[in-house]
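Much of our argument rests on the idea that a fold can be written as discrete symbols. The amino acid sequence and the backbone structure tokens for this protein are reproduced below:

___
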Amino acid sequence: MEVTILEELFQKISEVTTVEDVGYHRVEEGRLKPFYKTQTDILGIEKWKTVHGQNPVYVKDTFILREITTKKQPIEIYDTKNDTRSADAFFLFGIDSIMIIPVVREDEVKAIICIASIGKYHQFTKEEMETCSKLADDYLKNQY
């Protein structure tokens, strides 16, 4: 996959949501494999990959990932600290609000896009979820 496609997609997602921290994880061997994210002052790419490397996230052990891989629909959490669906990784990265978009190919979730609001809450609207899902489909349709 070309990083330039993700850079363009992430720029559009940030314009729609005003959230700058956007990451792309492949789902391989039952776990998340961090691939690429926006470079921000809050969370840089190297720290993101290092923390994920030290704290692997397995689909079977993570409620929200099981939900996403089953329903194959975007999910948003406004307040990660008070939502029982929250993953441990959200706390490692200081995520306050998150939207997760599954990348589905042949009826299987191959990757997820995480739009993470760090340091402030963000209410992801239905319109934002629909627009970001459509953008992801449009940008990534030829990637698998």
